[in-house]
From TrEMBL:
It comes from the Bacteria. Residues 487-498 have a biased composition (Low complexity). This is DUF6049 family protein. It comes from Streptomyces bluensis. The lineage of its organism: Bacteria, Bacillati, Actinomycetota, Actinomycetes, Kitasatosporales. Residues 756-772 have a biased composition (Basic and acidic residues). Keywords: Membrane, Transmembrane, Transmembrane helix. The chain crosses the membrane at residues 698-718. The keyword Membrane applies. Residues 487-513, 729-796 are annotated as: Disordered. Coiled coil: none annotated. Residues 732-747 have a biased composition (Acidic residues).
Length: 796
């Protein structure tokens, strides 16, 4: 009946498979006993060794598995395995063939790890070769030359029994000149999950699909209304372009049942790229040209996340562990985490038009200790994504418990499975590595379900934050097979976090001493958080004078969030350069509002005004700045009757303003004066400007000499007038009558009167009045924005 069933293409039942294997063993027992009593043949002796090396060089040929389909076979399927064999020895291999071997099932998840590490060939553990026509033959394998193979075998020929994880081996047997008998010269092992029927209770599986990148935007923005963003390079454009890392993650993820885990900074950066943007290129910037690429990627992402769960990390994915270990005692560091958390939801909703979950915190590699948990929850998150190699089982459970664990204080640790989460961290560019990783992942998943088939559990898988394209492709291949299998069903992260905790699962957070040293070495140092504090302090001092604070506070605030990003791990030099660039840009902005340098100023009198010019090269105006002018020798020169004077100023964007101070000099000579800008709360703003004031007052003796000279001029004029009058009278007497003389005198009197009136009119109007150095001027001219010239003179 069993043979008839095989002929018809149906696989025998597990009971029949067990009977077949048991019968074969019983029938072969006498023969095996006889063989054991005979001297071992060279071939039998060689094959019986536990290691290929001990079997006369059985490690000679490298076997690689490039593909295995289907990854999870069922009844009626045909298993196809392809790969390569390469002779690494010095002698040719002849009469060789590649065959498939099916070993026994593994009994636990730990046994899978043990079997994966096992080297060499063992005929008992690796099982018999399927043989027959299901082999591929090679007449000769030349040293150093790889040859490909492809074998297809119906699943029924594998003689699989009960549900479980089977060890599957692909071996090459052949002969060499040194050992002219057939023996196994190389083998590659993998696992074959076997669950042809739907499991009674499926494991609920949550797979996190991360869309996270490094920091790409600088703190700098353009001066226009749109504040054109400036990118460090075009790396982000390459990542979202067709075939790029983020483009592949999006394309693969949209076909899977996953929970999207997104860094809002990535969304903000790509969104900024959809409009006009600039890219730094050495000391210059160029115009970005990838707006269409950014629009396409965002549109496809928005479509992909509809009706899917989206978890938003705090903006720029801050390094929680670095904060906990090196930053929490630096003033303001935790406030940056709170700010990054608050802005996350708005960013995701604005760009993707979906409402994300924001109550999850994800420390690096899920490694936690009490301080990490405390910092993670300080910004409002009440769920921490940990990993089972950190929050380890201490009660020797025989099964994998639910991911959700209450760890006190209303906080839930969502413990990701370490074996499944790290399955694809290696080099997946090699087809052999990818195939083995997929099969081992599926084996671990099935064995998790078989640990307690009547107990439904929730399992969370949190892979590496930024998988490479090959890693993402391998992850997608494994997930596709898992989601088409019979033992797993997909579940959102929120549902896994809300699942009933297993009362036997450990809930004790490990101590700080257990935090991995390899991760601790990659943390942001305390100096990084101190630099961020310095930048924040300077920003706080700067923003109070701005009329439009958001133009500066928002981009610089987001830049400081990026300075704390997890993506800087392992990139300490780049992180330091980025922090310095943010501080440098803020310094540049601050320097745009400054005092104009002044040279020596001359005062020609006891009282005069001194102008000081403030220049604002920002686009926006500044307000609430206080300009203080201080006499460094107040006994010789007073400012508004005291040591110093202050004036509140407001300067429009792109303009300068001159401010005048009244002074009183008590002595001649040079006096040092200092001008300094202050914020409204009394904090110094920018560097001070110091200049000399040279007082050159006229003395009383000089004034007397001048007055005497004027008096002599008046007397000389009067004498000339009387002489003229006498000459006119004498002329009149000589010419005639007394009447003519009288008329002439009357005429002269009228002329004098008219002249007097004209002189009075000129005095009132100021026309044609000759100037004198001691006369007071109307006012000081408007101050130029440029530095004043040498020997600047300020009149009374």
């Amino acid at each position: 009946m069993a043979e008839a069933a095989d002929t018809q293409g149906t696989s025998p039942s597990p009971a029949r498979r067990w009977l077949r294997r048991t019968g074969a063993l019983v029938a072969g027992a006498p023969l095996l006993a006889g063989l054991l009593q005979l001297p071992a043949a060279p071939e039998a002796h060689s094959a019986g060794q536990s290691s290929p090396a001990k079997a006369g060089g059985a490690n000679t040929v490298a076997v690689a598995l490039d593909s295995l389909t289907p990854s999870v076979p069922t009844d009626g399927d045909t298993l196809t395995i392809s790969g390569t064999v390469k002779n690494n020895g010095k002698q040719p291999v002849t009469d060789a063939h590649v065959g498939i071997r099916v070993g026994g099932t593994v009994s636990s998840r730990a046994a899978i790890d043990t079997a994966a590490r096992r080297g060499g060939f063992n005929q008992y553990a690796d099982g018999p070769e399927v043989g027959g026509k299901y082999v591929e033959k090679f007449s000769r394998l030349t040293p150093g030359v790889a040859q490909s193979f492809r074998i297809s075998v119906p699943v029924k020929e594998l003689d699989l029994g009960a549900d479980g994880v089977y060890q599957l081996g692909v071996s090459l047997a052949g002969r060499t000149a040194a050992a002219p008998y057939e023996r196994v010269l190389g083998i590659q092992r993998t696992f074959l999950p076997w669950q042809p029927d739907t499991a009674a209770t499926k494991t609920k599986t949550t797979y996190l699909w991360p869309l996270i990148s490094t920091s790409h935007l600088t703190a700098e923005t353009g001066p226009g209304e749109q504040q054109t963003p400036v990118f460090q390079n075009e790396d982000l454009a390459h990542e979202i372009s067709p075939g790029g890392r983020l483009d592949q993650l999006l394309s693969l993820g949209r076909e899977l049942d996953i929970t999207w885990v997104i860094d809002p900074d990535l969304l903000a950066s790509v969104d900024a790229m959809t409009r006009s943007y600039r890219v730094t290129n050495g000391n210059e910037t160029t115009t970005g040209k990838n707006q269409a690429v950014a629009k396409r990627w965002l549109a496809e992402l928005e479509e992909a996340v509809q009706d899917k769960e989206v978890v938003a990390l705090p903006f720029a994915d801050p390094d929680i562990a670095s904060l906990a270990h090196n930053g929490k005692n630096v003033t303001g560091s935790l406030s940056h985490l709170k700010d990054a958390t608050d802005v996350a939801a708005d960013t995701v909703e604005t760009v993707l038009h979906v409402k994300p979950e924001t109550d999850f915190s994800w420390p690096v590699d899920g490694a936690v200790d009490p301080s990490i948990v405390k910092v993670a929850t300080s910004a409002g998150a009440d769920k921490v994504i940990a990993r089972s190699d950190s929050l380890q089982d201490t009660r020797n459970l025989t099964y994998t418990p639910n991911a959700a664990r209450p760890i006190g204080g209303g906080t839930t640790a969502v413990v990701a499975d370490a074996r499944l989460s790290t399955a694809f961290q290696g080099d997946m560019t090699k087809a052999d590595n990818a195939t083995l990783a997929v099969q081992k992942f599926l084996a671990q998943s099935l064995m998790t379900d078989l640990q307690a088939p009547d107990k439904q559990r929730s399992v969370v898988i949190a892979p590496q934050r930024m998988p490479t394209p090959s890693q993402a492709q391998t992850m997608a291949q494994a997930l596709t097979a898992l989601q088409s299998g019979n033992w797993s069903q997909s579940q959102d992260l929120s549902a896994a976090a809300d699942a009933e905790p297993d009362p036997n699962a450990t809930t004790k957070v490990p101590s700080a001493a257990t935090y991995p040293a390899s991760l601790r070495k990659q943390q942001l140092p305390t100096s990084a958080f101190e630099t961020i504090l310095d930048t924040q302090t300077d920003l706080d001092r700067f923003k109070v004078v701005l009329t439009d604070k958001s133009r500066v506070v928002t981009p610089l605030g987001r830049a400081m969030n990026r300075e704390m990003s997890t993506s800087w791990r392992g990139r300490a030099p780049e992180a330091r350069v980025y922090r310095d660039s943010v501080q440098s840009y803020l310094d540049t902005l601050t320097d745009q509002v400054r005092l104009i340098e002044k040279s020596e100023t001359k005062l020609s009198g006891r009282s005069a005004t001194i102008p000081v010019t403030v220049q604002n090269n920002l686009v926006q105006g500044v307000d609430k700045l206080v300009l203080r002018l201080t006499s460094l020798q107040p006994k010789r020169l007073e400012i508004d009757g005291q040591d110093y004077a202050e004036q509140t100023i407001r300067v429009s964007g792109g303009h300068s303003q001159s401010v005048k101070f009244d002074t009183n000099a008590n002595a001649n000579g040079e006096v040092a004066v200092e001008a300094q800008l202050y914020t409204e709360d009394g904090q110094k703003y920018g560097p001070s400007v110091t200049f000399d004031v040279n007082v050159t007052e006229f003395t009383p003796t000089v004034m007397l000499v001048i007055a005497g000279g004027v008096l002599l001029l008046v007397l000389a004029g009067f004498r000339m007038y009387t002489q003229r009058k006498r000459a006119a009278a004498q002329q009149a007497e000589e010419e005639g009558t007394e009447e003519e003389t009288a008329a002439e005198e009357t005429s002269d009197t009228g002329v004098l009167a008219a002249d007097g009136l004209k002189e009075k009119s000129r005095a009132r109007s100021g026309e044609d009045e000759p100037g004198h150095p001691s006369d007071p001027s109307a006012d000081t001219a408007l101050e130029s924005a440029d530095p004043s010239g040498t020997g600047e003179r300020v009149d009374r």
